[in-house]
Amino acid sequence: MNVYIYAHLDEQGLELIKQSIAAHELHFHSCFSSPEESGDAFSKSDIAFGTVPANWLQSDLKLKWLQLESVGFEYYQGLEANNLPEGFRISNLKGMFATPSADTIIGGILALYRKLDQFTLSKTKQKWRSLELRPSMRTLKGKTVLILGRGSIGMRCQKILQAFDCDTLCFGRPGTGIDIDSPEALDDAFKTVDIVITCLPSTPETRGMINSQRIASMKPDAILVNAARGSLVNEPALIHALQNKSIGGAVIDVTKDEPIEAGHPWWNCPNTILTQHSAGGYDEELVDKTRFFI
C-alpha cells in the first residue's frame, strides 16, 4: 500500500515508521506542503497520517483511511460524504491527550487558587508579597466543578478531582452518564458552581455555548477553564468579566485566533493562566502519535 505521512513528527517517530511499516511504500511530506508540492503522492495513497487540509479530500482519491494527528476533527465537518472515496474512514487520536491535558487543567486551577502565578511575577520583580497574598489563597478541596464533556479529558479531570473531595457535575451527550441534560439545567449550574471546565469538541451545537449570559451568571469567585476550542466561548464577554473582576479567574489553553497577536487583551487579563494550546503536550507526544498510528 501507499502510505502518505504528513504528520509533524520527530526523528524518533520517523524512524519508528520506517522500521515498523517498511513493507509499504512510504511518502514523507512536510505538514506545510501544498497539493502541488506533494505531487500525485497523496492522490495515489491508500492511507494518510496527519491532519491534511480538508480541501485535499475533495479531489479524486483512492484514500481508504486518514489517521489524524489530533483529537479535534472540526476541520472536516463540512465535507460531503458523497464526495469522499467509497469506504473511506477517518480516525483521531482519541484518548491520547487525556492525562497531560487534565494535568494542565488541574495545575492551572491550583496555580490560581494558590496564587502561584502571582508569586512567579513577584520573583521576577524581586518583591516579597507573603502578607499581601496569603489572605486570598484558596484550596480546591470540596469545590463544585461543572465538566462540559464526558470524553477522555473530562473523565480524567473528574477522577483527579475526586482526590480533592470535589463534587462534579457532567454535561454531555445523553447516555454517557451525565448529570445535566438540558440547556435550562446548564444555565442553573453556571450560577452555582465554583469551576467550569470545558472539554467539548467544536461542533455546530457547541460553538458559542459559553455565551455572555452564562459568563455573567457565574459566581464572583468562579473560575472558567477552556481546554476545548476557542469557538466555544464568547471571548469578548469573558475578557470583559476578567478585566472587571466579576469572575474569579480563567485558565485558557485555546483561543479563537492562534497565535495571539501582540497587544491582544488576553496578554494582560488579570487572574488568567494562558497555556498557549499546549495542555496536551508532553515529552513523548510526537513518538506516541506514531505508536498510535502503527
Radius of gyration: 22 Å
SSE ordering: EHEHEEEHHHEHEHEHEHEEH
Biggest sheet, in brief?
Answer: 6 strands, parallel
What is the number of beta strands?
11
User: Helicity range of the residues?
Assistant: 25-40%
Let me know the average pLDDT: 93
What topology, given as strand order, has the largest sheet? 7-6-8-9-10-11
Number of helices: 10
Q: What's the shape? A: globular
SS-based class: alpha/beta
Topology, element by element:
Elements: E1 2-5, H1 11-20, E2 25-28, H2 35-38, E3 47-49, E4 65-67, E5 89-91, H3 98-113, H4 116-125, H5 130-133, E6 144-148, H6 152-162, E7 167-171, H7 183-192, E8 195-198, H8 212-217, E9 223-226, H9 235-243, E10 249-252, E11 272-274, H10 285-293
Parallel strand pairs: 1-2, 1-3, 3-4, 4-5, 6-7, 6-8, 8-9, 9-10, 10-11
Helix pairs in contact: 1-10, 3-6
Structure overview:
The protein has 294 residues and is α/β, with parallel strands linked by helices. 30% of the residues lie in helices and 14% in strands. It is built from ten helices and eleven strands. It has helices at 11-20, 35-38, 98-113, 116-125, 130-133, 152-162, 183-192, 212-217, 235-243, 285-293; strands at residues 2-5, 25-28, 47-49, 65-67, 89-91, 144-148, 167-171, 195-198, 223-226, 249-252, 272-274. The strands form two sheets. It has a six-stranded parallel sheet with strand order 7-6-8-9-10-11, sandwiched between helices. A five-stranded parallel sheet has the order 2-1-3-4-5, with no helix packed on it. α8 (212-217) links the parallel β8 (195-198) and β9. The longest helix has 16 residues, at 98-113.
